[in-house]
UniProtKB/TrEMBL annotation:
<dbReference type="GO" id="GO:0016787">
    <property type="term" value="F:hydrolase activity"/>
</dbReference>
<feature type="signal peptide">
    <location>
        <begin position="1"/>
        <end position="18"/>
    </location>
</feature>
<keyword id="KW-0732">Signal</keyword>
<keyword id="KW-0378">Hydrolase</keyword>
<feature type="domain" description="Metallo-beta-lactamase">
    <location>
        <begin position="39"/>
        <end position="207"/>
    </location>
</feature>
<comment type="similarity">
    <text>Belongs to the metallo-beta-lactamase superfamily. Class-B beta-lactamase family.</text>
</comment>
<dbReference type="InterPro" id="IPR036866">
    <property type="entry name" value="RibonucZ/Hydroxyglut_hydro"/>
</dbReference>
<dbReference type="InterPro" id="IPR001279">
    <property type="entry name" value="Metallo-B-lactamas"/>
</dbReference>
<dbReference type="Pfam" id="PF00753">
    <property type="entry name" value="Lactamase_B"/>
</dbReference>
<protein>
    <submittedName>
        <fullName>MBL fold metallo-hydrolase</fullName>
    </submittedName>
</protein>
<dbReference type="InterPro" id="IPR050855">
    <property type="entry name" value="NDM-1-like"/>
</dbReference>
<dbReference type="GO" id="GO:0017001">
    <property type="term" value="P:antibiotic catabolic process"/>
</dbReference>
Amino acid sequence: MKRLIPLFLMLFSGASMAQQSYSIEPIKDNVYRFSVGHYHSVFMVTDDAIVVTDPINPEAAQYLKDTLTQRYEQPIKYLIYSHNHIDHTRGGDVLANEQVEVISHQYAYEDLSWTQAPTALPTLTFNDTLRVNLGDSHVQLRYYGPNNGRGSISMRFMPANVLFVADWIVLGRMPYKSLPGYDIHGMIRSTEAVLNEPAFDVLVGAHAETGVRENVVNYLNYLKALYNGVRDGMLAGQSLEAIQASLTLNEYAHLAMFDDWRVQNIEGVYNTLIEQSYFNLRE
């Protein structure tokens, strides 16, 4: 069953912050979820320091920084980016200073650097895995290959055993529109890899709901049904419009944004199979 997390704090910003809403919720033990509208990140508080993740935007980062300063004596020691996309990494310069190590995957660093992204650049990168130690707690970072954006990773906060994943696992909601920036093959492979790892207690996504293993299994089943349905339609010579009409995916109609994004999800997979697999060049 899906785990419901109680609301801990809700504040609303002033007009200058475009009516952004902020919330901080306890997830488990020393791990918290920070929400800005429909965006989420997490942070962990230890006896000696705090590790924060995606800043989301400068206003949100300033709010989080001020709140943590008021609530805790411990300083922020680490800022970890989930991937390169600017709607998750902007505001890093608000949280970063000479005492804060900014961490990302090497590919995320390259993208942020090459594109001159308006945020703090990572000061520590890795390729496959990295363990970030904070006293009796730690964060295990892992890269699974392409799935969404560049250098997208999972973060497992221990010993609370809370897993944070941005964008390529979304619980209780459809994947975003026509899957811009997504690799559908990598989404499936990466999600399978997560399910083959030791069990997590709670998964927090950068969007939508928190959940447990069975929610991730349901999400993976949707991805496979979507992919297989589009592929089989293309193998049968159907047009995009015909696949959108016939591939109803009704068993997943409970997902948020199903009516709005089903046909766009189908379009995203269809375009991926043309752009990455050259399906249109088959005889």
